[in-house]
Automatic annotation (TrEMBL):
The gene is wcaE. Keywords: Glycosyltransferase, Transferase. GO terms for molecular function: glycosyltransferase activity. Its EC number is 2.4.1.-. It is an enzyme of class 2 (transferase). Pfam families: Glycos_transf_2. PANTHER family: GLYCOSYLTRANSFERASE, GLYCOSYLTRANSFERASE 2-LIKE DOMAIN-CONTAINING PROTEIN. The keyword Membrane does not apply. This is Glycosyltransferase. Gene3D superfamilies: Spore Coat Polysaccharide Biosynthesis Protein SpsA, Chain A (3.90.550.10). InterPro entries: Colanic_acid_synth_WcaE, Glyco_trans_2-like, Glycosyltransf_2, Nucleotide-diphossugar_trans. The keyword Protease does not apply. It comes from Salmonella enterica subsp. salamae. Residues 4-134 form the Glycosyltransferase 2-like domain.
Length: 239
C-alpha cells in the first residue's frame, strides 16, 4: 500500500461526503494504491450508515466510537495505517483536482522524509488563496505547509504520534518532533488539497500561539536562532 488517507469526523456527515467525493481525484491514477481510513467519534447523523454502504470502496476501513478529541482520533488512524505515507484529510477537506499529478511525483522520491506541497485556503464567497509550501527551516517558526498538504512517512508517525497535551498545535508538535528525529521536509511543486478556514488550528489564535511557544520550547529551542537566519537568507535568495 502506497498511501493512507486518514479522515477524522464527528457529526459532519456532509463533510465526509465532500471528502469522499474528492477521493476520485486521487483514484484517477490506476497505478496508485491507497486506502481511506475514517475515524468517526460515534456520530449519529448518518455517517456510520454511509460508510457501511461504501464498504470496500477506496479500500475503506472505519471505526465509529467515542474518542478524547481530534488528535486522539488521528492517532487511531495512525495505528490503522498501512501505507508507506499518510496524509490527514479531515471531514470537509478535499483533494485538489490535480492531486494525482502530485502523488505521481511523490512516488518517484527516495528517502524517508515529510513531503510537502501547496493547498488552497477557502475563505468563502469564492475567495481562495494558494498557500505555497515554505522551506523546511520554517518549522522553527510554524508548519512550512498546510497540515492537509504534508505526506508523512507512516513509520515515523507510528514512532512519534500526536501529543495529546496540545489542544490546538499537536500537528505542529508532531512535525517538529519528526524533523528533530531526522525526517527532513522536501517540497514537491503542485497542489494537494483545499479546505475552508475555521478549523481547530485556525480559529483559536491565542491558544494556538501559546501552544506553538510550548512546542518550540520543548522541541526546537536550541536551533531557533539558526533556523531564523537560514529562513532569512532563503527568503532573500527567493526574492
Amino acid at each position: 500500500m502506497f498511501l493512507s488517507v486518514v479522515t477524522v469526523a464527528f457529526r459532519n456527515y456532509e463533510g465526509v461526503l465532500k471528502t469522499w467525493r474528492s477521493l476520485r481525484n486521487l483514484a484517477r491514477d490506476p497505478g496508485l494504491s491507497f486506502e481511506w481510513i475514517v475515524v468517526d467519534g460515534g456520530s449519529e447523523d448518518g455517517t456510520r450508515e454511509f460508510l457501511q454502504k461504501r464498504h470496500g470502496e477506496f479500500n475503506l476501513r472505519f471505526v465509529s466510537e467515542k474518542d478524547r478529541g481530534i488528535y486522539d482520533a488521528m492517532n487511531k488512524g495512525i495505528a490503522l495505517a498501512q501505507g508507506r505515507y499518510t496524509l490527514f484529510l479531515n471531514s470537509g477537506d478535499a483533494f485538489h483536482d490535480d492531486v494525482a499529478l502530485f502523488v505521481r511525483q511523490l512516488a518517484r522520491q527516495k528517502g524517508e522524509a515529510m513531503y510537502i506541497g501547496d493547498a488552497l485556503l477557502d475563505f468563502g464567497g469564492g475567495h481562495k488563496i494558494r498557500r505555497k509550501a515554505k522551506p523546511g527551516c520554517y518549522i522553527y517558526h510554524s508548519l512550512p505547509a498546510s497540515h492537509q498538504a504534508i505526506f508523512f512517512p507512516t513509520s515515523g508517525l507510528k514512532k512519534h504520534p500526536y501529543d495529546l497535551q496540545y489542544n490546538v498545535s499537536s500537528d505542529y508538535a508532531l512535525a517538529a518532533r519528526l524533523y528533530k528525529a531526522g525526517y527532513p521536509f522536501r517540497r514537491i511543486n503542485g497542489l494537494v488539497s483545499e479546505f475552508s478556514m475555521g478549523g481547530v488550528s485556525t480559529s483559536n489564535n491565542l491558544e494556538l500561539c501559546q501552544d506553538a511557544k510550548n512546542v518550540q520550547r520543548k522541541n526546537i529551542t536550541c536551533a531557533r536562532v539558526l533556523g531564523a537566519i537560514i529562513l532569512f537568507i532563503t527568503s532573500e535568495n527567493d526574492g
